Amino acid sequence: MSGRSHDEGLKDLTLLGNQGTKYSFDYAPEVLESVDNMHSTRDYFVKFNCPEFTSLCPITNQPDFATMYISYIPDKKIVESKSLKLYLFSFRNHGDFHEDCVNIIMNDLIELLDPRYIEVWGKFTPRGGISIDPWCNYGRPGTKYVEMADFRLMNHDLYPEKIDNR
């Protein structure tokens, strides 16, 4: 395969290559875009690391900073990375608890992609002397990915990664 053609899921993209990109300062799930997965016959992980994620505390409006890790096994669609960047940026002025942010991100990506499996992990920097690192996952019902999700949930912190964002 020498590359993706315009007809292979590229014609519907509006953000990639657009020099007039506008950043939304309000939560904007509508900016998410996807393209066809050209390798849907195999399982593989797609991983994104966003070390500059920010949101606001819903009570104090103080900023919260995190590295957001998103990993998923795609099925028919993959997320376009520029749209994901703009989507994550839209949390900048969004007031929600850390746990809500990771679950909202996961839910929006499930709605967009219908992945086989997905997990979202937010490693938030400490504020007030404590850090919060919520982790959530999902396996498509009725598939082997439910068992994978259960296993990863029960074992996700068995071998903690080196935390390098604090």
Automatic annotation (TrEMBL):
Give the superkingdom in one word.
Answer: Bacteria
Q: Which GO terms describe its molecular function?
A: preQ1 synthase activity
Q: Where in the cell is it found?
A: Cytoplasm
Q: Give the reaction(s) catalysed.
A: 7-aminomethyl-7-carbaguanine + 2 NADP(+) = 7-cyano-7-carbaguanine + 2 NADPH + 3 H(+)
Q: What is this protein called?
A: NADPH-dependent 7-cyano-7-deazaguanine reductase
Q: Where does substrate bind?
A: V79, E80, S81, H98, E99
Q: Name the residues annotated as catalytic in the UniProt entry.
A: C57, D64
Question: What family does this chain come from, according to its entry?
Answer: Belongs to the GTP cyclohydrolase I family. QueF type 1 subfamily.
| Function summary | Catalyzes the NADPH-dependent reduction of 7-cyano-7-deazaguanine (preQ0) to 7-aminomethyl-7-deazaguanine (preQ1).
What Gene Ontology biological process does one annotation of this record name? tRNA queuosine(34) biosynthetic process
Broad enzyme group: oxidoreductase
Native species: Psychrobacillus psychrodurans
Instruction: Write out the entry's keywords from A to Z.
Output: Cytoplasm, NADP, Oxidoreductase, Queuosine biosynthesis
In which broad location class does this protein mainly occur, judging by the first location in its UniProt entry? cytoplasm
